[in-house]
Amino acid sequence: MALSLLALLAFYCSYLVVGLKQKHAPGEDLSLSEFASRKVGRVVGGVCEACILGASVGGCAVYLNFTGQILSQV
Questions:
Q1: Within the chain, what is the greatest distance between any pair of CA atoms?
Q2: What would the pLDDT profile of 26-51 be if each residue is shown by its tens digit?
Q3: 36: which residues sit within 8 A by CB, 6+ positions away?
Q4: Which residues span the domain enclosing 42?
């Protein structure tokens, strides 16, 4: 239940940030961390970049772990 609520919160926050990005920088090709750096500050942009990197590494780790378990059974 708690993970479902966290997933909904993360989705809603992403939805809000993408909406703000489209409103304040419609024609620019900015990443979310670049947009956060521009609007809030470099520290927040760095934290945003670190969170994106952590989520990417975590997703890859889960995929590799799952694939390794499946392959060890075959």
A1: 52
A2: 888 888 889 888 888 999 889 989 98
A3: 17, 44, 45, 48
A4: 2-73
